[in-house]
Design goal:
This protein has about 425 residues and is mostly helical. It has 15 helices and no strands.
């Protein structure tokens, strides 16, 4: 009994090991769905990089996306084996694209930006600016380590390589972000005050009322506005708006019990008090304290801070008209594309590369494509004659052979 049970167990194991391909992971629906989602994230991530920096890599990206698209189609057709193979092939194409982008764009650009901004940052002797610069160089080194690990790993482990390349791009982006923050910290007090004013102006154009009452004021009016109470401000606002038609957007929404109107008054008082405190910090050069208050009212503060820094420095260069330092030779407008990419945004002047692929990708087993191939073979020069000859050739060869055998058999009988 023991020998028989062992034999049956061996037969069961061998039947499992030498089973048909349908039992392997690539034919499993759950596994195929998982790797499809994973590959889709890789495609969407690299789309941002190619759109912002590498227009010349469009054909390579299209080739990788076409295979991912057909993998998705194969999955919808329940052909999980073909879907798995197309995903693997797509990752093979993307691995080359990722490697080239990391090495020739992100690592090179981050090094160039850090080296270009370093002289003025070091000359400023600002401790916080030097710290940001140090962090920028550190993250750039970490990005290089991720790239080296990916490049040296097993050539067939595409998914692992892509994960490491994604980490390399993220660290390179953060190194550039630290470089831009170090650029802001290296500025003098007057320039920083202009940068914060530029942020408030940009916010006021977008409809935010925070710090609007301090814009375009001279030093004395700025101090007078800072010392006003909320009641004095309300009276001055009513006198200023007297005779003007009141907008519907300015009317507070009041519910049945009137709690919303009371809440709006409280919010206005709190905002007024925070504005006065932030204005006091700004005029005294305590920008860290002012930043903590402004972050509550201004979303995406770091992005807007760096954007305002580029705008103020570019305007200062145009106004001066003379190159007083090495920073005057920097084209800050070119850094804006890096800033957008750092925060995973596409340049305003460009269209997403994936959106241009809608009319370019084709299904592999498309009926219209197969019909074209068949019609092309039929209408090819000499196609019909070759087909007829190939069909008729066996009949011409077989007939003489049978006749010759009959003649030989008659001769033997004679």
């Amino acid at each position: 009994m023991k020998k028989g049970s062992k034999t049956s167990l061996l037969l069961l194991v061998s039947s499992f090991l030498f089973a048909t391909p349908s039992v392997f992971p690539y034919s499993d629906q759950t596994t195929t769905e998982r790797i499809l989602k994973e590959n889709r994230r890789f495609v969407e991530f690299i789309n941002l990089c190619v759109t912002n920096f590498a227009d010349d890599k469009k054909e390579d990206f299209l080739k990788a996306y076409d295979k991912h698209f057909n993998a998705d189609v194969a999955y919808l057709q329940s052909d999980y084996r073909r879907a798995y193979k197309r995903v693997y092939s797509s990752q093979g194409e993307m691995e080359k694209l990722y490697r080239d982008l990391v090495k020739n764009y992100y690592l090179e650009d981050s090094k160039t930006i850090l080296d270009r901004l370093a002289p003025d940052i070091i000359r400023s002797k600002n401790k916080r600016a030097r710290l940001y610069l140090t962090l920028g160089y550190r993250d750039r080194t970490v990005s290089w380590v991720h790239y080296t690990v990916a490049d040296a790993s097993n050539p067939k482990f595409y998914s692992y390589k892509l994960y490491k390349y994604v980490d390399a791009i993220k660290m390179a982006r953060r190194s550039k972000r630290y470089a831009f923050l170090a650029l802001f910290e290296s500025q003098n007090t007057e320039t920083k005050r202009k940068i914060y004013t530029q942020i408030c102006k940009s916010e006021s154009q977008g409809g935010t009322k925070y710090m609007v009452r301090f814009l375009d004021l001279n030093d004395q009016d700025y101090i007078n506005e800072m010392g006003k109470t909320y009641e004095e401000h309300e009276e001055a606002e009513k006198a200023r708006n007297q005779g003007r038609p009141k907008k519907e957007a300015d009317k507070p929404a009041v519910d049945v019990e009137g709690s919303t109107a009371y809440e709006a008054k409280v919010v206005k008082r709190v905002r007024f008090r925070n504005e006065s405190r932030a204005a006091r910090y700004l005029i005294n050069g305590e920008f860290d304290m002012a930043e903590d208050l402004m972050r509550e009212y201004i979303d995406d503060f770091n992005f807007k801070l760096i954007t305002a820094t580029f705008d103020v420095l570019s305007a200062g260069m145009k106004a001066s008209g003379a190159e007083t330092s090495s920073s005057a030779k920097i084209d800050y407008e070119k850094y804006k594309i890096h800033l957008l990419d750092n925060y995973s945004r596409i340049s305003f002047s460009k269209k997403s590369m994936l959106d241009t692929f809608v009319d370019l990708v084709k299904v592999e087993d498309d009926i219209s494509m197969n019909d074209k191939e068949e019609r092309g073979a039929e209408t090819a020069p000499g196609g019909d004659s070759k087909k007829k000859e190939s069909e008729a050739a066996p009949e011409k060869k077989e007939a003489p052979a049978v006749k010759d055998e009959g003649i030989k058999e008659e001769k033997r009988k004679q």
